[in-house]
Design goal:
The chain is an alpha+beta fold. Helix content is 30%, strand content 13%. It binds N,N,N-trimethyl-histidine and fe (iii) ion (FE).
């Protein structure tokens, strides 16, 4: 059922406000020197993200939807992600922290005024209700990016959060894998109001039966691969993956190191023993793929992942989330930086799919076997640089969203992508295998 304009306005206001609270937390917990520093050549200075958030909001909501006069057209080029790679951004004449905060706040004040009055349908952007959702998602995506910067930063602890609850009692009894039946399945969406261009349109896909892990691969399981010499054994790696581990000397997930006989990991400034029960985090596609091969399995394709997450075998229908059509609540999934780590494998029984697959949404982004490609009938919207320029074999698809993603930027249809070498992102995975006909 379509939401009435007042409900849409409330929803947009709520999404924008939630995003700004997170942005503030991420940009006020360190001093100005740290905001302007580059903590890794892979990342922008935090103060660039902050003003870029404001600048995108100015361009799309103030100028496009609101038809208002530009506030700071002079800074557009500085905050255009395509003009300057991240490694160059510290050398740009960036707004200093106080000005960046003031600019983002000024844009937001004017945007809330537009949100109160604007007709939500029939605007220059075709549908202003979409534009508000897109900008809330954009800010939350940068909040995840800024959290990655915080993870890469060295120095005293700046961000804290409570730990997630321990795994539920039934975890040890869960089957290792679940059979997903073959047959047609509706992938993507043509109706989800805030879905982005690459999730559209919905279309039918034929899927062969397959088995998929009930839970994401844990640190404990991954450690068995490490200790079995997985990183030294060419058999498990694709040629490109093998060249990459050799060249960079990879021997364990990013942020892990060995001390005495113990494996430790650093997380937001705290070093602790690697927790066995937590989903493995900070692995690149090559590592995920090699682990799967070592385990006698493979990564799921993107189509398989989405079928596992959305297919309801009782009705044949594809649902919005593994648990149904309800928006994510705290009982369903570990999202929104509520905790600053994934929950133990087996958590969130209320978020399980009808077939019993757990933690598909939240906790860790899950690498899939698939390249990032357009769906049949794809049309860029509202700009080619969101998705279209990234399609092709250079990027692998990740699904499901991590603990760092807000629910506004996370759905059963949501698609993320990155280079197969990337591992500073909050990435993990689960494995799959073909089902033989007699098992179906
Ligand atoms: C969809 C997460 C790959 O961060 O590069 C932010 C999202 N696009 N600003 C990214 C995005 C433009 C994008 N990812
Ligand atoms: Fe951006």
């Amino acid at each position: 059922p379509a939401l009435d304009p007042e409900a849409l306005r409330r929803r947009a206001l709520d999404a924008l406000t939630t995003a700004r609270e997170r942005t503030r937390a991420l940009t006020t917990c360190v001093d100005d020197r740290e905001l302007t520093a580059q903590h890794s050549p892979l990342m922008s200075p935090l103060v660039w993200d902050l003003a870029h958030i404001g600048n995108q909001e100015e361009q799309w909501l103030l100028r496009n939807v609101g038809g208002r006069e530009a506030l700071r057209p002079d800074i557009d080029p500085i905050y255009d992600a395509f003009e300057h790679p991240r490694s160059e951004r510290p050398t740009l004449p960036l707004l200093p922290p106080a000005e960046a905060h003031a600019y983002a706040a000024e844009v937001r004040g004017r945007v809330l005024d537009i949100l109160e009055r604007a007709p939500l349908h029939g605007s220059p952007l075709t549908d202003a209700a979409f534009a508000f959702g897109m900008i809330a998602q954009h800010e939350q995506q940068h909040d995840e990016t800024m959290l990655i910067t915080h993870q890469l930063r060295r120095g005293p602890v700046a961000l804290t959060a409570p730990p997630p609850p321990p795994a539920p009692a039934d975890t040890a009894l869960l089957p290792a894998e679940v059979l997903v039946p073959g047959g047609p399945f509706t992938m993507g969406t043509s109706t989800e109001p805030w879905s982005l261009d690459n999730e559209r349109p919905s279309h039918l896909r034929e899927v062969a039966p397959f088995f998929i892990d009930t839970v994401p691969v844990s640190n404990g399981a991954y450690l068995a691969f490490v200790e079995d010499g997985g990183y030294e054994d060419e058999r498990w790696w694709t040629p490109a993956g093998w060249a990459h581990v050799r060249e960079h000397g990879l021997a364990a997930p990013l942020f892990w190191h060995r001390e005495g006989g113990a494996w430790l990991r650093r997380r937001f400034g705290v070093t602790e023993p690697v927790p066995r029960e937590e989903p493995v985090l900070h692995v690149c596609w090559y590592e995920a793929d090699a682990y799967a091969r070592w385990a006698g399995r493979r990564l799921p394709t993107e189509t398989e992942w989405e079928k596992a997450a959305r297919h309801d075998p009782a009705t044949g229908r594809s649902r919005r989330y593994p648990w149904g059509d309800a928006d994510p609540g705290p009982e369903h999934a570990n999202l929104g930086q509520r905790y600053l780590q994934p929950a133990p494998v087996g958590s969130y029984p209320a978020g399980a799919s009808p077939l019993g697959v757990r933690q598909l949404v939240g906790d860790v982004w899950e690498w899939t076997a698939s390249d990032f490609l357009p769906y049949p009938g794809f049309a860029p919207f509202p700009y080619k640089e969101y998705s279209e320029v990234f399609f092709g074999p250079d990027h692998k698809v990740l699904r499901g969203g991590s603990f760092a993603v807000d629910r506004v930027a996370c759905r059963g249809t949501f698609r993320n992508w990155d280079y197969p070498v990337r591992r500073q992102i909050f990435s993990g995975f689960r494995t799959a295998r073909d089902a033989r006909p007699e098992q179906v």
